[in-house]
Amino acid sequence: MNISGATALVTGANRGIGRHFATQLAERGAKVYATARRPGSIDLPGVEVLQLDITNPASIKAAAAVATDVDLLVNNAGISTGTNLLGSELDAIRREMDTHLWGNLNMVRAFAPVLAANGGGAIVNVLSALSWFSYDGSNAYAVAKAAEWSMTNGIRLELAAQNTLVTGVVLGAADTDIMAGADYDGPLTDPADVARAALDGVEKGLIEVVVDQWSAHVKASLAADPADFYQQLLAT
Fold it and tell me: Signal peptide position in this chain (predicted)?
């Protein structure tokens, strides 16, 4: 699809990758609904600000009732609780699932009819290399992102008949607020580069955009013995 002339809705547009999505979409000539749980936290020029909490079905329904001209949905909003699966409170694990799986699935379910009415359009789901592996200290996030990755593949099949492109965007660590407090000292991808690669991918009709070398390395490792990958991971 062409970004110029499109109408896009971006979740979590107040900061990080979502802010760059909203900015670049507007620069490319799209109408942009920039959304966040606290709409006052969005200070971008040239966008229409909407309140949206993707973990609240009523909030999603209200946004879909307003943004009836959307033909590009960018599911970017996310959290990271830094929680493992054992010895941690289940509430934190549920928050990860409620956001990355149920929240994004509810967004798709609400906006799929909108996209169909507007010719099909496209959906971008911002995923993670942690969709494909686990890391001690982020196992709840990995489970939630793996579920979102599988959900992305499923809705791609279900929405093909209405001509909706579904693009999964896979990245490693980006220079965002989520990573600011993380125990991580490796390279960080510029969030502007993530948004740019994703939007270029949509315009090319790609169903998957692998943003960085680390994500490409993780993907390639899936065809090999997992023991090799995890031995390397534990050695770093």
Answer: none
The whole-angstrom separation of Cα 40 and Cα 204 is 34
The helix, strand and coil proportions of the chain, stated in percent and rounded to the nearest 5, come to 50, 15, 35
Separation of alpha carbons 207 and 87, rounded Å:
37
Closest to 141 (Cα-Cα) out of 198, 88, 188 = 88
State the Cα–Cα distance between residues 166 and 72, nearest whole angstrom: 10
Q: What is the pLDDT of residues 197-207, one digit of tens each?
A: 999 999 999 99
H helix or E strand, kind and range, residue 145: helix 139-159
pLDDT at residue number 60: 98
Q: What's the DSSP call for residue 128?
A: -
pTM above 0.85, yes or no: yes
Question: What is the residue-wise DSSP string for 19-37?
Answer: HHHHHHHHHTT-EEEEEES
